[in-house]
Design a protein that fits this description.
Shape: globular
Strand order of the largest sheet: 3-2-1-4-5-7-6
Order of helices and strands: HHHEHEHEEHEHHEE
Distance between the termini: 43 Å
Largest sheet: 7 strands, mixed
Strand content: 15-25%
Structural class: alpha/beta
Number of strands: 7
């Protein structure tokens, strides 16, 4: 199967129904990542079927876990644009911001997304509060929560996308969650290419103290 066939065949398991225009745009972005990866280090995953499974479908698991319509979401450490860009394509009613510390990645996203008709803001600096902050495989969960929580307003949620160690990492985080004003709301598992991936949703129930996030080396 090619990228589009693989993507379409994986949508029913996520209970997602996308238009053909959305699947075409998702695949166009997937191909753009593959092409750009030849001149910029974006991803180790470059085979079209694997891009569909491990980048596109994996990113879309968030939509199986949350209704993002009418909400604002920031993807912290977005890298090549996952999960934020697929979420922006599949849920155009969501106000998506892509944040990465590497300026050349952000500049590439600023260039390619308008060409594909994708509406998302691309930034390299801290911004205002959001309904959701999401991140995929940026750091171990106890570190990730400190990076994400300050972006979320009270009543919003941190959404962490994790792999096989998700339960173990979550068990380490009770103290960090309390300090950051977070409370576990959901732990959802999805099969992705023969492995179990998790979407962890932590509701923000109290303000995060101003001293967070600390410098990365201290975390």
């Amino acid at each position: 199967m090619d990228m589009k066939q693989t993507l379409i065949s994986g949508l029913p398991e996520l209970k997602l129904d996308l238009t053909e225009a959305q699947t075409d745009t998702l695949c166009a972005f997937g191909q753009a990542v593959i092409d750009q990866n030849q001149v910029m280090n974006l991803t180790a995953i470059t085979e079209p079927q694997q891009v569909a499974k491990l980048h596109l479908l994996d990113s879309l698991t968030v939509l199986s876990a949350l209704d993002l319509r009418g909400k604002s979401l920031i993807d912290v450490g977005c890298g090549a644009g996952f999960p934020g860009v697929p979420l922006a394509i599949a849920s155009p009613q969501t106000q998506v911001t892509l944040l990465d510390s590497l300026g050349k990645r952000v500049n590439w996203l600023k260039e390619i997304l308008p060409q594909l008709g994708v509406n998302a803001e691309c930034v390299t600096a801290r911004a205002e509060s959001y309904d959701y902050a999401v991140s995929r495989a940026v750091a171990r969960l106890n570190i990730l929560l400190e990076l994400l929580a300050p972006y979320v307003k009270v009543g919003g949620a941190v959404v962490a996308m994790k792999g096989s160690a998700a339960k173990e990492e979550l068990a380490e985080c009770a103290g960090a969650m309390k300090k950051l004003g977070l409370q576990q709301e959901a732990f959802l598992e999805f099969p992705v290419d023969g492995a179990i991936h998790a979407v962890i949703i932590l509701r923000k129930v109290a303000p995060t103290p101003a001293k967070y996030p600390r410098p990365y080396a201290k975390i």
